[in-house]
UniProtKB/TrEMBL annotation:
Belongs to the class-II aminoacyl-tRNA synthetase family. It holds the Pfam family tRNA-synt_2. PROSITE patterns: AA_TRNA_LIGASE_II. It comes from Bacteroides reticulotermitis JCM 10512. Residues 51-284 form the Aminoacyl-transfer RNA synthetases class-II family profile domain. This is Asparagine--tRNA ligase.
């Protein structure tokens, strides 16, 4: 995450060990910009039933691609009593609603973009509406990719069970193998966040990524872990500071309900709907690692 401070970076106060002190900072401690409102959203969903957040998201990962921004906008629904199946249903319905709205209300714009930018745009949007998304376990997806390699297909990055799939792997599944959107599920727990519900096999979690043509991942989400002991164990295994997690653990301590949610990168949705090639063309003020003034 991006660290944020009101201190003068050219005159930092340090302690006797050389560590920066934040006593005179506005926050009084080291602080960072948020990556997600999910954890707080879980509390709201268990109180109100179904909620969503929509706001800026900040990521400091070193991903300099046409699909990544340092600051983007994310829509994050969270629904009480939803399991992973309900979550996949909601994600598919949600994205189809957005695409259909664009087809119904922005026809002239889409025709212009189809004629001038991407000749297959409208056909691709209509294809999404007419197809049922494939629901594919990660293990089966990796097997498909390994079979492709065995038959001579070349990937830049290696593929094996346990790897966090690259965009080229995701797009192969969507564009080459199935030729329609794919919801990849049941990822290895080691490559996913601590809050995702563990499956009975002890190796995978009830995560889901919606993969789209030309984009790769457009939605990421999961059913949330409701078991206090399992959640505590994962927090400890992943060395998440307990001082930041006590309140979240309290929401499970005395029992909770199943709940699930996901995050949709709004600019990636716009990228797909408009047929543009670079995500910087669909956000008003693109902020990349080389242009990250706030």
């Amino acid at each position: 995450m991006f660290q944020v401070t009101t201190k003068n970076l050219y005159d930092l106060k340090k302690d006797e060990n050389g560590a920066i002190t934040y006593d005179d900072d506005f926050f009084g401690k080291q602080a960072s910009l948020t990556v997600s409102g999910q954890l707080e959203g879980e509390l709201a969903a268990t109180a109100l039933g179904a909620i969503y957040t929509f706001g800026p998201t900040f990521r400091a990962e070193n991903s300099n691609t046409p699909r990544h921004l340092a600051e983007f906008w994310m829509i994050e629904p969270e629904v009480a009593f939803n399991d992973i199946i309900d979550n996949m249903d909601l994600a598919e319905e949600f994205i189809k609603y957005c695409v259909q709205w664009a087809l119904d209300n922005c026809g002239e714009d889409l025709k212009f973009l189809n004629d001038m930018v991407d000749k297959g745009l409208i056909e691709r949007l209509q294809g999404v509406m007419q197809s049922e998304f494939v629901r594919l376990p990660y293990t089966e997806g990796v097997q498909i990719l390994e079979d492709a390699v065995a038959k001579g297909h070349k990937f830049e990055f290696p593929v094996y069970w346990g790897v966090d799939l690259a965009s080229e792997h995701e797009r192969y599944l969507v564009e080459v193998h199935f030729k329609r959107p794919v919801i990849l599920t049941d990822y290895p727990k080691e490559i996913k966040a601590f809050y995702m519900k563990q499956n009975e096999d002890g190796k995978t979690v009830r995560a889901m990524d919606v993969l789209f043509p030309k984009i790769g991942e457009i939605i990421g989400g999961s059913e949330r872990e409701s078991d206090y002991n399992k959640l505590m164990t994962r927090i400890q295994e992943m060395h998440v500071p307990m001082k930041d997690m006590w309140w979240y653990l309290d929401t499970r301590k005395y029992g909770t309900c199943p709940h699930a949610g996901f995050g949709l990168g709004f600019e990636r949705l716009l990228l797909f709907v408009t047929g543009m090639a670079n995500i910087r063309d669909v956000i008003p003020f693109p902020r990349t690692p080389h242009n990250a003034e706030f």
